[in-house]
Specification:
This protein is mainly α and 154 residues long. It has one domain: lithium bound rotor ring of v- atpase (Four Helix Bundle (Hemerythrin (Met), subunit A), Up-down Bundle). It contains 6 helices and no strands. The two termini are 33 Å apart.
Length: 154
């Protein structure tokens, strides 16, 4: 088996960073939102009010950024295969931006869970706000894929 040089061993680091950093943000965001949902349900139980299952949807919102990180990783692997480029910076910055979108979306979802648990109202408004924070991740993914296609000569 051929020995790889030190730099060659890290050739796919940028692609892995795109997924990993996106997933970190999703995990933090879903965790934060999940804690708020549990707190809202606890308040409902104490007040003998039925708990809203819609809080699960709010809690799950940050998980989609992991999918965006995976799609971006696949695009990066294709670009690396075509050009043999090291895309560490692309993966690190795009993954960070997507992950931060998930983190802040989770924080927004946490406040939405608290409000929904207390009032039982406003679900559509909360989803609209979560959609705005989601849009950042979508734009980063799309714009990065466009750049990758240009780097690959496509």
């Amino acid at each position: 088996m051929e020995s790889l040089g030190m730099m060659e061993q890290f050739r796919d680091l940028g692609a892995i960073l795109a997924l990993a950093l996106s997933a970190f943000g999703s995990a933090f965001g879903a965790g934060i939102a999940g804690m708020a949902a549990i707190g809202a349900w606890k308040k409902n139980f104490i007040q003998n009010k039925p708990p809203s299952f819609l809080l699960v949807a709010l809690t799950a919102a940050p998980l989609t950024q992991t999918i965006y990180g995976f799609i971006l990783m696949q695009s990066m692997v294709g670009a690396i295969a075509i050009k043999g480029q090291y895309l560490w910076g692309v993966g690190a910055f795009a993954g960070t931006a997507i992950g931060l979108s998930a983190f802040w979306q989770g924080r927004c979802a946490a406040v939405a869970c608290d409000s929904m648990g207390e009032t039982g109202k406003g679900f559509g408004n909360y989803i609209a706000v979560l959609g705005m924070t989601e849009t950042v991740a979508l734009l980063v993914m799309v714009f990065t894929i466009v750049v990758l296609k240009r780097l690959a000569g496509g």
